[in-house]
Automatic annotation (TrEMBL):
Coiled coil stretches, renumbered: none
Name of this chain's protein: TetR family transcriptional regulator
Organism lineage string: Bacteria, Bacillati, Actinomycetota, Actinomycetes, Kitasatosporales
Keywords of this entry: DNA-binding, Transcription, Transcription regulation
UniProt organism field: Kitasatospora viridis
Compositionally biased residues, Basic and acidic residues: 168-177
Length: 271
């Protein structure tokens, strides 16, 4: 019996192995993927959501105001009232003045953007592969078709008259590129009041120098009517038919704006 008791003693390693299953405790370290799952992000605070919505609304209102201002000033000129801009934008006049504290600031914004666009297109025409007349006529067609020429600032006409009076100020394309370092490269704008962009390329004097170079090149090639100056070219730029007149097709199947432009171009080209 002593021998059997010794075999059943639990203190002895291996004793009692045949009397039942051996159990052991395993630490709870299973399913690591469940423990590593990131919690769902908490919803944004109401104040943050409201701020984001206000920023989106402000951007939408700004775009509406700028679009309406281009239409109104293009049709009625820069003397048009701010109330008409607000009405077409679908906002209150107070919203317009919150972004543009005065009408002069809004006019400056619109004029600078249009001048910068016209300047970039003039550089492309001057340094492109088209011939002298094709470059000038193509530029005018592009500018008149978009209505951008009607938004030139009033001082542009004074600069054009100065260039027309003083022949030395009318450079050729080669002289212009040498003097101003101009070329077909990209335009780098700078900030504008109200959030736009302007800079040296929004200066109407630079635009008129480019136009004068286009005129000089076409004249040198004998493709421009003698005596045409940059002043006449600026007048052609402003010849777009305002949207208020309508864009209905004429009796000969042509758009009135395109027909007017063709008449003007025929008058500019050398016979």
């Amino acid at each position: 019996m002593m021998k059997q008791d010794h075999l059943l003693d639990p203190a002895v390693p291996g004793a009692g192995a045949a009397t039942g299953p051996i159990t052991c405790t395993v630490p709870e370290q299973r399913l690591p993927e469940q423990r590593q799952a990131e919690p769902e992000p908490a919803p944004a605070p109401a104040e943050e959501r409201r701020s984001t919505r206000l920023r989106v609304d402000a951007r939408r209102n700004l775009e509406s105001v700028l679009r309406a201002a281009r239409e109104v000033f293009g049709e009625l000129g820069y003397d048009a009232p701010m109330e008409e801009v607000a009405r077409r934008a679908g906002v209150g006049v107070g919203t317009v003045y919150r972004r543009f504290p005065s009408k002069e600031v809004l006019v400056q914004r619109i004029a600078a953007e249009e001048v910068a666009w016209l300047t970039a297109r003039a550089r492309e025409a001057l340094y492109g592969s088209a011939g002298p007349w094709e470059a000038l006529a193509g530029y005018l067609a592009n500018a008149v078709g978009t209505g951008a020429g009607r938004l030139l600032p009033p001082e542009a006409f004074g600069y054009a008259e100065e260039l027309a009076r003083v022949p030395e100020q009318r450079p050729s394309s080669e002289e212009f590129g040498h003097a101003f370092g101009a070329g077909p490269g990209p335009v780098e704008p700078a900030p504008l009041p109200g959030g736009g962009a302007t800079g040296p390329h929004a200066d109407p004097r630079l635009l008129l120098q480019l136009l004068a170079a286009l005129v000089a090149r076409a004249a040198s090639a004998g493709e421009l009517r003698p005596g045409v100056t940059v002043s006449e070219i600026v007048l052609v730029l402003t010849a777009a038919v305002p949207p208020s007149i309508g864009r209905t097709v004429g009796p000969e199947g042509t758009d009135p704006g395109e027909r007017l432009l063709q008449i003007l171009l025929d008058g500019l080209r050398a016979a």
